[in-house]
Amino acid sequence: MAVAKKKAKKKMMYRGKPLYRIGDRLYYGNLTDKYILVLDVLETEQQKETKVSKRIAVQIMDNRCELGKGQIFRKAERPNLYKALDIGEWWLKEAVTEY
Predict the structure, then answer these.
(1) Contact indicator for 18, 30 with CB cutoff of 8 Å
(2) Which backbone phi and psi does 91 adopt, to 5 degrees?
(3) The pTM is what?
(4) 10 Å Cβ neighbour count for 30?
(5) Is 92 helix (H, G, I), strand (E, B) or coil?
(6) 3-9 contacts: CB < 8 A, separation 24 or more?
């Protein structure tokens, strides 16, 4: 967990939870919780001077072992980051309250 904090350059927040980015992978949620949301950018496109995510893989992952290596409980693919975070946040909230 400390490795993700060291590698991540900026700590961003989305709806009150931290969002860490390491390369093309984003981690959303508290790193101390049982589950974490992992978002992988699969495809990007260049729009003017900015790279925009075109395809995102969304996964709810067990966070009790090494970060990004846990068991996957749910996964999906969405066409952009907003839609990926929207479904992922809902899944994460459900997983944390259920278990």
Answers:
(1) yes
(2) -60, -45
(3) 0.77
(4) 15
(5) helix
(6) 3/67, 4/31, 4/67, 5/31
For residue 62, CA distances in Å to 29, 45, 95 come to 12, 31, 10
The rounded distance, in Å, linking the Cα atoms of 6 and 16 is: 21
Q: What are phi and psi of 5, to 5 degrees?
A: -70, -35
Give the residue among 53, 99, 50 at the shortest CA–CA distance from 74.
Answer: 99
Sign of CA dihedral 92, 38, 32, 66: positive
Q: Cα–chain-centroid distance for residue 96?
A: 15
| Helix locations, 1-99, DSSP H | 2-7, 81-98
pLDDT in tens, 5-62: 555 456 788 888 899 888 889 999 888 888 899 999 998 888 888 888 889 999 998 8
Q: Can you name the residues that pair with 78 across neighbouring β-strands?
A: 56
| Amino acid symbol at 42 | L
Amino acid 71 reads Q
